[in-house]
Design a protein that fits this description.
This protein is α/β, with parallel strands linked by helices and 126 residues long. 33% of the residues lie in helices and 30% in strands. It is built from four helices and six strands, in the order αββββαββαα. Strands 1-2-3-4-5-6 form a six-stranded mixed β-sheet. It is globular and about 40 Å long. It starts with a helix and ends in a 6-residue tail after the last helix.
Length: 126
């Protein structure tokens, strides 16, 4: 399943309870969801990249060892407000999510790599 389609289905499923989603649009690798109270962008890329944004943003990437290593190596770049990352394995119908800024507030820096790798290990690598 293409990551943009995965993101659309993911948000629609989550919206089944909250019912705040008004509409969505796809432009290249970015899916924009307009909710009643906010606009949320999902950047879908097989390889993890760091977006520079002030909006609500979620990066959706494959759960690969390379992407997990990239997150750890560029951790400080991901400490942006309203930024989350979803690592997914669409074939296994599994994913995990992290909000780096929140994670950094509750976890100590010494256990960062261990914690991220533990989260990643719950989903098979692609």
């Amino acid at each position: 399943m293409e990551l943009t389609n995965w993101a659309v289905e993911y948000v629609k499923a989550r919206n089944a309870v909250s019912r705040t989603l008004k509409e969505h649009s796809v432009s290249g690798d970015v899916v924009t969801f307009v909710h009643k109270h906010k606009v949320h962008h999902f950047l879908c890329s097989e390889t993890l990249i760091v977006p520079q944004t002030t909006d609500h943003y979620t990066v959706v990437c494959l759960n690969s060892e390379e992407n997990v290593n990239f997150l750890i190596a560029h951790w400080d770049d991901f400490l942006q407000p309203n930024l989350s990352v979803i690592f997914t394995n669409p074939a296994a119908h599994a994913h995990w999510q992290i909000t780096p800024r929140v994670h950094a507030m509750v976890a100590d820096e010494e256990s960062l790599e261990t914690g991220v790798r533990t989260l990643a290990s719950d989903v098979p690598f692609v």
